[in-house]
Amino acid sequence: MPVLSRLFRPLIVAACVAVLAGCAAEPLSPKLRAGPERVELSGVPFFAQNAYQSAPASMAALLTQQGEVVTPGMIEKELQLPQKEDALREGLAASARQRGLLVYPLGDDLDELLEQVAAGNPVLVHLREGIGLMPSWRYALLIGYDRTNQQVLLRKGHQRRAAMSFSAFESDWEEAGSWAVLVQAPNQLPASVERARWLRAADDLDAAGQANAAKMARLQMR
C-alpha cells in the first residue's frame, strides 16, 4: 500500500464514522419525539415544477389549499419571471398578501418546521440543489416526515413525494439561507405561534392594503 494511502486511511475512516454518526443523530426535540412518528399532508395540492416554476408552483399549491383558484402560470406572471428572479421572496409574499393571506416566517430550526407539519401546515422552503461551483436553487413544500427513518417529504420538482434525509434537507436548506414561511388564513394560527412574529406579519398584511384581514389576524392574539 502506498505510504500516502496508509497515512490518510485513518483520517478517511474517521471522517466516514463522523458522517455516519451525524446521519444517525436524532435532531428532534422531546416535544416532537412525543408527537406523531409519521406525518404526511397528502391533501396539499401538487403542481409539477418546470423551468422558473419552482416558486410559482409551490405558491400556487399553497394558495389552492387556501381556496384560491390559481395556476403556476398565473403566479409566474405576477412574479415577473425570469426578469425578477432576484426578488422572488418579496414577490411570493406579495402574491399571498394581495389575496388576504398572512405570511408567517419560521426560524432556522428543523424542529420548528416539523412541528408545523405535524399541526397540518405545509411549509414553503428554499433549497440548494447540486454541488460544486454552479449549484441550482429551488423552492419546495415540506409536507411530511418520518421520524423513524429520519426523512422529510417534499413537493419538489416533478416529484409529488420527494424523500430526503433529515441531514441532507438541513444541509441544502442551510445553504439557501434557512428560509421558510407559512401561508395562513388570518384566522388560522400556526402551532406554537409567537405573538410578536404573528403581529408583525399582520402589520405587513395591513401595509399591503388588506386592512380587514390584518384586523382579523390581530384579533387572534386577544
Automatic annotation (TrEMBL):
Which keywords label this protein? Answer: Signal
- Going by the entry's taxonomy, the superkingdom of the source organism is recorded as Bacteria
Keyword Signal attached: yes
Signal peptide range equals 1-21
Could you identify this protein by its name?
Peptidase C39 family protein
Q: Tell me which species this is from.
A: Metapseudomonas resinovorans NBRC 106553
Record lineage: Bacteria, Pseudomonadati, Pseudomonadota, Gammaproteobacteria, Pseudomonadales
